[in-house]
Amino acid sequence: MKKRQVVIKQRKSSYTMTSSSSNVRYVECQKNHAANIGGYAVDGCREFMASGGDDALTCAACGCHRNFHRREVDTEVVCENSPPNANN
Q1: What pLDDT is attached to residue 42?
Q2: CA-based radius of gyration for the chain
Q3: How many Å apart are CA 18 and CA 16, to the nearest integer?
Q4: Which of 22, 61, 64, 71 is deepest in the core (most CB within 10 A)?
Q5: Alpha-carbon distance 18 to 85, whole Å?
Q6: Where is the ZF-HD dimerization-type domain positioned along the sequence (predicted)?
Q7: 47: Cβ–Cβ under 8 A, 6 or more apart, which residues?
Q8: Do residues 69 and 28 make contact, with C-beta atoms less than 8 angstroms apart?
Q9: Regions of the chain short of the pLDDT cut 70
């Protein structure tokens, strides 16, 4: 059995500033309420609304956990390019 040695070199990036922001929304509920009888039925809840108090992961509209709601992520990445450095 041969052993391999892998060397990873990192290149110096010409990007000076990178920032990203993401907005997460939880939209329609996808919990199958009829799974125990072999069917498929969703409750029609269109957007997660956090319950107040200690149970913030439960939807106030349908009573389901936040994980049952479809997650939408809007991500924006901004990179600013800098001029090449003559010393490199």
Answers
A1: 92
A2: 24
A3: 7
A4: 64
A5: 18
A6: 26-72
A7: 25, 26, 27, 28, 61, 69
A8: yes
A9: 1-20, 80-88
